[in-house]
Structures are given as C-alpha cells and as structure tokens.
Amino acid sequence: MVNVLYFAWVRERIGLPKEQVETSAATVNELVEELKAREERYAAAFADTSALRVALDQDLSNFDAPLAGVREVAFFPPMTGG
C-alpha cells in the first residue's frame, strides 16, 4: 500500500487530493500505468508525464525510479520560482 498525493491540476483532473493505492508496480512508470487503467480521469491526468514531476517520500525523483520501500508518491506539475 502506498499513499499517492496529487497537486495542482493533477488533483483537479483526478478529483482527489490523495488516496491509498494497493499496487504491484515496481516503478513509478508502472504505477502510472495502473492508475491510467483505472478510469478516464486518471488517463487524462497522466496523458503526458513529461508535464509532471514526481517525489518519492518527499524527495524529487524520476518516473523509472523503483517503488520498493516507498511510502508516499506525489505527482505535481513543474514549479516556477520568483
């Protein structure tokens, strides 16, 4: 079981700020594919992962990162500072 958090427009498209997900995914990419297969709203949110960033246990990561031992996965659009 992994806690999945959604921020900004990802949260708006999915309609949830967070959820617990039972997954057999070995990587973030596999988790994304599992989520996309759930419903159209997930497919829409994850249609272009190049427009997303991911953090594993609050550390920025990449989509081919392993999920072994990870408790929290957060998806969000790139941030700009200023």
Describe what this molecule looks like in 3D:
The chain is of the alpha+beta class and 82 residues long. The protein is 28% helix and 26% strand. The protein has helices at 9-14, 28-38, 40-45; strands at residues 2-6, 18-21, 53-56, 59-61, 72-76. The chain has a five-stranded mixed sheet with strand order 2-1-5-3-4. A hairpin with a 2-residue loop joins strand 3 and strand 4 (59-61).
Which geometry do the CA atoms define? globular
Order of strands in the sheet with the most strands?
A: 2-1-5-3-4
Count of helical regions? 3
Helix content: 25-40%
Head-to-tail CA distance between termini? 37 Å
Q: Give the DSSP E fraction (strand runs of 2 or more residues).
A: 25-35%
Mean pLDDT: 95
User: What is the number of E strands?
Assistant: 5
Q: Which oligomerization state do the chains in this entry correspond to?
A: single chain
Q: Biggest sheet, open or closed, and with what strands and sense?
A: 5 strands, mixed
Write down the Rg.
12 Å
Order of helices and strands: EHEHHEEE
